[in-house]
Design brief:
This protein is an alpha/beta fold. The chain has helices spanning 2-21, 42-51, 66-82, 93-98, 113-119, 132-140, 165-175, 191-196, 206-209, 214-225; strands at residues 27-32, 56-59, 86-90, 103-106, 124-129, 145-148, 180-183, 201-204. The termini are far apart. It binds ligand 3NM. Residues 128, 147, 149-150, 154, 156-157, 183-186, 204-207 line the site of ligand 3NM.
Amino acid sequence: KIYEALRFKSYDLEKKFSIRKTLPDTDIYGILGEEFSAGKSNIEITKEMIKANIKIIQYREKNKSKCDKLKDCQAIRKITSVNDVIFIVNDDIDIALAVKADGIHIGQKDMPIEIVKNIASDMIIGLSTHNQKQALEAVEKGADYIGVGPIFNTSTKKNLEKCDGLSFLKWVSENISIPFVAIGGIKESNIATVKKHGGKYFAMISELVGSENIVKKINLIRKKLY
Ligand code: 3NM
């Protein structure tokens, strides 16, 4: 029994590690959300992000039915798989498991991370954090990466937590050992500031999804990063 458990454990680590190897040291973390788009479907947005060589994409839909979210995620899983792109599902662990996503991203008020780890032990688990205490707790509880935000004010997320974004990010970059992703109000116009405060991964919804030409937008943003 113990042997089985160990074997399973090392398989998990191997899988997580091999997935991470595909990620560059610094880049954009794309997040989907059709309601913020200029009339494009999540599938179209995914294809444009992949065309721009985005390597990690999260599905985040707050207003669709479970069935519609499942259909979207089944299609996106296929496209991301053939393109070696990491696919993370926000919040809906049942959908993440059903489509065999690479990971699940949860918030402070979603299912507790301890439970998520039990249910989805071989998945990458991301946890949103909004202050130092939450970031330290996330590491202690075994999150694979944390979201750090909101960096700036944004209307994309309802009930935005209070957060001294840039200084929290700086603190995380100096004190937290696991990967972290800056989020909240990040745009082409301010990404250089986020980078200056220690940002390595930059999650964006409206700036990407709302663009007429997502590939062009990503290329412009990258010019500020490299
Ligand atoms: N989480 P945009 S801020 C989904 O602070 C989300 O945890 C946040 O959207 C957090 O790039 C946010 O359009 C919204 O500002 C990000």
